[in-house]
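Narrative summary of target 7.
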Amino acid sequence: MTIHVRQQIRDALVTRLTGLVTTGSQVFKSSTFNFDDADLPCLLIANEEDNSQSASIGYPRLQKRDFLVSIRAIVKISTGTDDALDNICKEVEIAISNDPSLGGIAKDLLLVNTRFELNGDMESQVGVATMLWQSQYYIKETAPDLAL
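Modeled conformation, tokenized:
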């Protein structure tokens, strides 16, 4: 494959999360997205950080990567905003737990944090649940497009 393993992980998450009951096909790879009410509820999948450490001696080095990826659930604010966000989070957690290696790209994918906020700066007010997922994967430093 010719794309970075991080992108492969995001692509696999889009595939895995497309078709959930609540968000359907509204799954996007982006840290920001200009959307309107017709796009809600939706999921946004984005890079947060990627930490590496050497897992071998000699060159090229084997690297263990700890990639933090965010999955943001976004809903229009209503009287049931918290319930709607919790339901989307439940659907995402179940979908990922069915294969936390994402078909072998990652060694593991673990939910480490969920934050909730209301945002009124957009066209319509929205509720957001940001789920942070820790993904572990290995690469050779000369081949960041090949998961080991």
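The longest helix spans residues 81-97.
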